[in-house]
Specification:
Keywords: Membrane, Transmembrane, Transmembrane helix. InterPro entries: DltX. This is Teichoic acid D-Ala incorporation-associated protein DltX. It is built from 1 helix and no strands. The protein has 45 residues and is mainly alpha-helical. The protein starts with a helix and ends in a 13-residue tail after the last helix. 0% of the residues are buried. The model has no long low-confidence stretch (mean pLDDT 82).
Length: 45
């Protein structure tokens, strides 16, 4: 039988990787959206 501590450590690592992946996706999408860049209306003038 697997030790209870090993299962808890495994669950912690899996959850950490899962939430870190979601956070990186959110940061990537935030950068991709162009927030913080100049307004596109003024690029043609």
């Amino acid at each position: 039988m697997i030790e209870k501590n090993a299962v808890q450590i495994f669950n912690f690592i899996i959850k950490t990787l899962f939430y870190m992946t979601i956070l990186l996706i959110i940061i990537y999408l935030y950068g991709y959206s162009g927030v913080g860049q100049g307004n596109f209306i003024y690029n043609e003038f």
